[in-house]
Design brief:
mainly beta; 1 helix; 104 residues
Amino acid sequence: MTITPIRLGDALRGEGDREVRTVLADERRKLVLIALREGAVLAAHHAIHPITIHCLEGQGELRVGEEVFPMSPGVVVPLDAHVVHEVEGKPALVLLVTMFRDKK
């Protein structure tokens, strides 16, 4: 087994108001780093697998239906598969999303 640490700070390039980078993808999990800058919004969408949304930096909001969850460093929100959600940087935020895939 080979272990390769992931340096999240190296994954973002600082380009534009919204940046989405997959930092790991294998058969069991997927890690996606998301930066929302200047009030950018990640429009309503859903994942086909359960996820966690972990705020690493900044401030923003996660909206699930009528509920609004303030996002700040250290906040982790677990969501079941197919839950529609939207995220907004207020004013900016960096998230790490972990998707848990079924074993093939």
